[in-house]
Amino acid sequence: MSYYIAPRFLDKLAVHITKNFLDLPGVRVPLILGIHGRKGEGKSFQCELVFEKMGVEVTHISGGELESPDAGDPARLIRLRYRETAELIKVRGKMCVLMINDLDAGAGRFDEGTQYTVNTQLVNATLMNIADNPTDVQLPGSYDSTPLRRVPIIVTGNDFSTLYAPLIRDGRMEKFYWEPDRDDKVGIVGGIFEQDGLSQREIEQLVDTFPNQSIDFFSALRSRIYDEQIRNFIHQIGFERVSLRIVNSTEGPPEFKKPDFRLSHLLESGKLMVGEQQRVESSQLVDEYNRLNRGKGYQAAPPVTGTPTTQPSSNGVNKGATNHNSQKPETLSPHLTLETQEQIRQILAQGHTINIEHVDERRFRTGSWQSCLNTHIDAHSDAISALESCLTEYAGEYLRLVAIDPKAKRRVMETIIQRPNGRN
Question: Ranges for the Ribulose bisphosphate carboxylase small subunit domain (predicted)?
Fold first, then answer.
């Protein structure tokens, strides 16, 4: 099977690796190439294809190895792997690189709830030190004055804004945002289904039917086509005999005939997968759990006397509201669900203040939220009015409600209250 390598990806990676092995007078070459982009777009796999094409050997480090119960172990691991790769260049006489997958998962800080450990600090500091002194990388407790061969470092991740800012500055790290365009997707998906008899036109139709899906979606789709045959195989031999037949059998591995890879079948299976994705996104159980668990002692305030009896309509907008409280009623909105208004009331009853943030669909993937307000709100009527204005002004964007503890100066709750296209 021949896989497709995106020309932009090949060009960027080849230039960075080659440039690090050249002696360019008066030129400071960044040691690290950071490849970032949304999940599932094949960043690591494209790297592997480029390495294979160029004949480059790779030493791998996973983001999961960048934390340890023993302080200093991950930093020492980076130095050790770097020195081993430099020795490989010397012994093999060929290009070698050090690759760290999912660097932001191991060394990034996503929000105030992410613990910033000693190891996180040491990993960032170690990579900065290596980028500044690539031929003088020492192990703790020893010193070797012999200069090392320079080793290009490739790191991948989804959101590099979570990393320590001095590490990703120009001069240390060159950034490459990978987002395959339609031509790239058609080429990559064509490679995935190359042996299945799909025409170029069918590949294009498949990609155009699911334009917002990542590359991993199409790979998972091909895998899913085999499910029906495997299911029939399991039912044929019996659930209790599957293990003996596959793991400890003298009959050899089972053989399956080629599944149905017609375009109509692929589209049908793909739509089922999209439906599963949407169900995960729409459930949003984590928001419910976070509302209950974020912040110490965060509990719902007692209900207000004369709670409105009006029910929200199916599109999340109140059909009307009445209040039978003899005292001055709280401001009720005809445009917000009762659930949202109750959330606001509970937040303010706890002594917290409110902020409202928005982000468009593109920046939502990187978590680049922006505040809609110039100040935090501590009055119910002001909060309702501000929220209605934000819903109108940012109708095509995500909106989230943020509760802030003014004494501790930290967030105690975040909940999305609007999604693009009016999905509230």
Answer: 328-420
